[in-house]
Amino acid ABC transporter ATP-binding protein (Mycetocola reblochoni), 246 residues
Amino acid sequence: MTANEPVLRVEGVVKWYGEQPVLDGIDLDVARHEVVVLIGASGSGKSTLLKTVNLLERVDDGQIFLAGDDITDPRVNADRVRARIGVVFQHYNLFPHMSVLDNVTLAGRHVLGWSRPRAEARGRELLERIGLGDRAAEYPDRLSGGQQQRVAIARALATEPELLLLDEITSALDPQLVGEVLDLVGELKAAGSTILMATHEMSFARRVADRVVFLQNGRLVEQGTPEQIFDAPQHEETRRFLARLG
């Protein structure tokens, strides 16, 4: 990967569900250390785009490159690609029968082949970083929703991913827990993480994004700095979407 090459490049990506195009020719780059936030109504294609990047959905046309590697090539090892990408979904998806530490260390041990001591050292470091170092031996159901989502973020970071995908990570949380999770994302931005995330939290998008991307009906309608998108949107569709939120 050259210094100027984006961590993620999406070129002309199309995805159909039956007769309906869910992604309709998406072009998008995410630079190293950049935080790009996807906004748009439910059904606009945000989650599907994230799933295609993580190879949970195969594209019907177009290509996706991770640090210059074509990850949409059908010959790629999907598990190896996913080990390079950290993902956090709306629902925490923690394994209930495993301790917090075992959840965080699973990918390092089983996908990357790390020894248990190495994986656990990394896991404990991350749990300390998110303020849950004393909960390593607990099971997920003993934690609040906000704590579980922070563990999910730690798990996503455990393999030292090149790219972090966050899909509406606060939508399943009680309102009082949203802030603690979003504060953690702000800390990841400050630490230089490369993040592509979908969110309905517009004030957070304004605060943390380097670039905001508005999707509608599977198309990229407009992108720009938070100031450009929220204060002076250029497209009528963007203005209508933001007006409905106001």
Observations:
- The chain has a mean pLDDT of 92.
- Residues 96-161 form one domain.
- The chain has nine helices and ten strands.
- The CA atoms of residues 12 and 230 lie 26 Å apart.
